[in-house]
Write a sequence for this structure.
């Protein structure tokens, strides 16, 4: 099941608190109407969800949704953050989920939840992890809870921004792990395109660098990067173009250095990738840095 694109999410916090409870406190079995982050600061807890028992230690977090019953238990005295949210909602104003939580039976805990994915431009559809070990997120959870409790002017929009920061940090972590596991298969091709994006690399040349047949290389590249080698090369070329546009080179010089046959072709491709013409991008950069 897909929750949407990282670029178009409009997430909403419904409830956020930081709490310390005794050992053997239980919530559930129940089915929640939204999504929940449960992050343990101290102690240990356990989640029964999606036909699994997941122990949650300090610095670890679980994420689960509305599709399957769950039960949370504290195994020791525990200090934790609990955040209820929607991935996308027209309004950023919190709507407390308590009145929509449904009781479930222990038999219901055997239900299997679907796998969830998020679309990330240039990377494709990425699986959202139900458990992760990311202690650095604690500061974002703390800021969310404080903002939720104080309800200062504009707090709903600040909560949305903080939740977006949290989601982006989580998905970066997922991508970093995926890149570490997989990049070695095509690393030579990625590196040469990053270093020399101006070169008209062919699939055959890139495949040879990695020791693959071009057809297999293209398939592997799309699986790992979510796009073709050609589109990746264009993206890297546009990154280089942006850097050059912040300097003093003319558009003609930039197009020539990036091996475009004409300024017109360069400008069309730049606008297609960025939404701005090279001149518009240069003007924005000038306003930003001066």
């Amino acid at each position: 099941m897909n929750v949407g694109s990282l670029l178009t999410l409009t997430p909403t916090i419904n409830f956020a608190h930081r709490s310390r409870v005794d050992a053997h406190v239980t919530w559930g079995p129940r089915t929640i109407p939204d999504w929940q982050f449960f992050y343990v600061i101290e102690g240990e807890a356990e989640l029964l969800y999606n036909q699994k028992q997941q122990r949650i230690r300090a610095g670890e977090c679980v994420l689960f949704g509305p599709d399957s019953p769950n039960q949370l238990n504290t195994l020791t005295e525990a200090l934790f953050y609990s955040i209820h949210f929607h991935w996308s909602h027209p309004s950023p104003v919190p709507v407390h989920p308590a009145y929509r939580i449904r009781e479930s039976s222990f038999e219901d805990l055997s239900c299997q939840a679907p796998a969830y994915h998020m679309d990330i431009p240039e990377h494709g559809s990425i699986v959202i992890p139900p458990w992760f070990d990311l202690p650095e997120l604690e500061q974002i959870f703390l800021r969310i809870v404080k903002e939720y409790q104080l309800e200062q002017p504009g707090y709903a929009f600040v909560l949305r921004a903080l939740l977006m920061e949290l989601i982006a940090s989580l998905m970066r972590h997922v991508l970093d792990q995926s890149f570490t596991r997989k990049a070695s298969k095509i690393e030579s091709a990625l590196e040469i395109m990053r270093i020399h994006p101006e070169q008209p690399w062919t699939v055959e040349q890139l495949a040879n660098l990695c020791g693959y047949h071009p057809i297999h290389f293209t398939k592997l590249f799309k699986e790992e990067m979510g796009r073709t080698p050609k589109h990746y090369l264009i993206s890297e070329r546009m990154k280089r173009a942006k850097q050059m546009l912040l300097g003093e080179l003319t558009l003609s010089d930039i197009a020539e250095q990036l091996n475009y046959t004409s300024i017109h072709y360069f400008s069309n491709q730049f606008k297609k990738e960025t939404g701005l013409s090279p001149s518009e991008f240069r003007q924005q950069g000038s306003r930003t840095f001066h």
Q: What stands out?
A: Residues 286-290 have pLDDT under 50 and may be disordered. Residues 186-289 form a domain with the Arc Repressor Mutant, subunit A fold (CATH 1.10.10.60).
